[in-house]
Amino acid sequence: MSRKDLSRCYDRLVYYGSRGGDLPAAAAAPLEREKLWCDDAAELTKIADDFNELADLVDVRAEGQLSPQQQAEKSHYLAESKRVRRVVAAMTQRKSSVGPVTVIGNQQ
To answer: How far apart are CA 8 and CA 4, in angstroms?
Structure first.
C-alpha cells in the first residue's frame, strides 16, 4: 500500500467518523496523516482544514450554546489546525529563504 493510498484511508476515517458523530476518532486520523506528509505543505494544509471542519461540527452538533466539554473539544481542534498551519508557514519560510542554487563545476 502506498503512502497516498493510506492517506485516502485516513481521509475516509475523518469523513465517516465525523458523519457518524465520533469526532474524537475522526480527529485521530489527521494526526496519523500528518506523519505521512510531514514534508508536504499542500497535504498539511488539508489536514489543518480537516481540524477546522471538525471544530465547525462541534458547533453544529451542539445546537446552541456549547457545554464546557464541547468548548474544550472545539478549542482542541482549532489549536491543532493552528499548529499545523504554523508548520506549513515555517516550511514555506525555509523554502523561500534558501534562494537560488548555484551549481559549481562542469556545466554542459
So the answer is: 6
Identity (one letter) of the amino acid at 99? G
pTM of the model: 0.84
23 phi-psi bin (left φ>0, alpha ψ -120 to 50, beta other): alpha
d(CA 34, CA 32): 5
Contacts of 6 (CB under 8 A, 6+ apart): 36
pLDDT tier for residue 95 given thresholds of 50, 70 and 90: confident
Dihedral of CA 51/68/58/5: which sign? positive
Closest by CA to 52, choosing from 18, 82, 9, 72, is 82
b vs e for 24-40, b when ≥16 Cβ sit within 10 Å of the residue's Cβ? eebbebbeebbeebeeb
Task: Choose between 72 and 99: higher pLDDT.
Answer: 72
